[in-house]
């Protein structure tokens, strides 16, 4: 398909369309539903089909609203005319309020719906169909095909006709032939097969199984536990490396191009560290679990159902993406690991017979130092990029302020013990409290959808953010209680 600014498989476009219309991130029946629409089958006008998050948009248009979030075509019919759609888009074009963003989102959803109802529009989205020249009369009379001389567009219309007549076997063969032709025209540089492979492998599940196995290795003997951690860390790193390489091949970009990509890269860096720690007899389990769990959030923050959306114009530079964004993501990984090590130190120190805490303490300090250094240098490089792109080095943008907050907090934690403001336990607690700081700077400021970094917006994922914050606050409270009761 030629859609969303790139060539993509039909199933990917189906996921994008269903997400845009209904807000469902994953729908097993998305491809079947889209094929039925492309074949010309209508959806009942009274079926709830289009998402409206804010009923105030309907009120502003003089339409009735209900407590439901999904509305039928019949209920939204006054907005589906070309004039009404243009007016809706114009009204909210420069409105950055939540209402304005919802108005634009609804207008885009309605555009998608009307395009599916226009037979000419879906045809132009099929790969290499727009070059096929068939008159309306030829399209209307097309009822037979030959594999050699029928154009791609003719094949598609023939598939529509066979589907309408209920000749499913012939329709399936025609669709397969059309897919084969499209793949042949793409040649060896076929991104469709790569994306289908990317979509087919349950990457997060594989990583979760490896992390779960790592936790289970705690009940093994010391020698077997070390061997298991080494093997599992290498296996997890290999899985995530393949995942990242596939994404890089599909996008032609460095590993981090958007917010979901930061989760994968942070997870990858954590797994690299897990491998290093495993072979140096360090606390590798925490890094393994972090590296396996963090990529899971990538799917939660994908926008518009498409894992590979086109880049914003300001991001169209592999140089700055390679050095600034990856450096900041490295800082996120180091600060995340320092917070987790802080939690582990606090928990272990309150156990009976805590044993040797020195390895945890050394790893904690090293993570803090690396987190401070990478975030500081990454922010500095981001300032140079901002000066080049926007004409100013620093503009107190929410994302810039978030990076500054990480720098200040990490520097404060590193100075607590040398300044004799706190000992090991207090420093570890401050490092643990760096996790909410990191979450706010990494995800929280994106919820605002404001500033020059709004292209990284995480609107609609506030529940995930606040759930993570609440969980960490509960854990910190538990650690304080354990310390008091000890």
List keywords for this structure.
486 residues; mainly alpha; two-stranded antiparallel ribbon; 4 strands; 2% strand; globular
Show the helix and strand layout.
Blueprint: E1 2-3, E2 6-7, H1 10-22, H2 30-38, E3 48-51, H3 55-60, E4 70-72, H4 82-91, H5 98-117, H6 120-125, H7 136-141, H8 152-165, H9 168-186, H10 191-200, H11 203-216, H12 222-251, H13 259-279, H14 284-293, H15 296-300, H16 318-349, H17 358-390, H18 398-416, H19 424-432, H20 434-442, H21 462-485
Antiparallel strand pairs: 1-2, 3-4
Helix pairs in contact: 1-2, 4-5, 8-9, 10-12, 11-12, 11-14, 12-13, 12-14, 13-14, 13-16, 16-17, 16-19, 16-20, 17-18, 18-19, 18-20, 20-21
Produce a short descriptive summary.
By secondary structure, this protein is an all-alpha fold.
């Amino acid at each position: 398909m030629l859609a969303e600014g790139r060539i993509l498989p039909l199933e990917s476009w189906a996921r994008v369309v269903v997400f845009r219309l209904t807000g469902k991130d994953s729908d097993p029946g998305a491809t079947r539903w889209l094929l039925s629409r492309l074949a010309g089958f209508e959806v009942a006008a009274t079926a709830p089909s289009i998402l409206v998050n804010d009923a105030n948009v309907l009120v502003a248009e003089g339409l009735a609203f209900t407590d439901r979030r999904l509305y039928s075509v019949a209920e939204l019919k006054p907005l589906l005319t070309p004039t009404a759609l243009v007016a809706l888009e114009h009204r909210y074009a420069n409105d950055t309020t939540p209402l304005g963003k919802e108005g634009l989102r609804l207008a885009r959803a309605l555009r998608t719906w009307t395009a599916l109802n226009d037979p000419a529009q879906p045809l132009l989205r099929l790969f290499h169909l727009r070059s096929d020249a068939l008159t309306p009369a030829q399209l209307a009379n097309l009822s037979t095909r030959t594999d050699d001389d029928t154009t791609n567009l003719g094949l598609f219309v023939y598939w529509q006709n066979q589907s309408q007549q209920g000749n499913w076997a012939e329709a399936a063969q025609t669709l397969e032939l059309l897919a084969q032709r499209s793949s042949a025209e793409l040649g060896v540089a076929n991104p469709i097969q790569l994306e289908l492979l990317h979509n087919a492998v349950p990457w997060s599940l594989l990583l979760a199984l490896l992390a779960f196995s790592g936790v289970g290795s705690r009940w093994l003997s010391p020698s077997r536990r070390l061997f298991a951690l080494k093997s599992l860390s290498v296996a997890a790193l290999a899985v995530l490396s393949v995942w990242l390489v596939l994404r890089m091949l599909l996008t032609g970009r460095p590993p981090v191009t958007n917010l979901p990509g930061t989760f994968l890269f942070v997870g990858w860096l954590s797994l690299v560290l897990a491998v290093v720690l495993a072979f140096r007899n360090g606390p590798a389990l925490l890094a393994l679990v972090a590296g396996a769990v963090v990529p899971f959030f990538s799917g939660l923050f994908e926008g518009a159902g498409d894992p590979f959306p086109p880049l914003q114009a300001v991001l169209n530079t592999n140089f700055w993406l390679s050095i600034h964004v990856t450096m900041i993501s490295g800082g996120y990984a180091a600060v995340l690991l320092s917070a987790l090590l802080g939690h582990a130190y606090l928990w272990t120190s309150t156990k009976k017979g805590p044993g040797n805490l020195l390895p945890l303490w050394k790893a904690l300090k090293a993570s803090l130092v690396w987190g401070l250094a990478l975030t500081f240098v990454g922010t500095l490089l981001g300032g140079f990029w901002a000066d080049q792109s926007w004409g100013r080095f620093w503009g107190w943008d929410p994302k810039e302020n978030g990076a500054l907050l990480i720098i200040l907090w990490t520097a404060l934690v590193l100075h607590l013990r040398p300044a004799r403001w706190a000992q090991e336990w207090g420093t570890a607690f401050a490092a643990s409290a760096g996790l909410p700081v990191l979450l706010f700077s990494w995800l929280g400021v994106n919820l605002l959808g404001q500033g020059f970094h709004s292209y990284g917006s995480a609107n609609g994922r506030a529940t995930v953010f606040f759930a993570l914050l609440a969980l960490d606050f509960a854990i910190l409270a538990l650690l304080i209680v354990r310390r008091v009761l000890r």
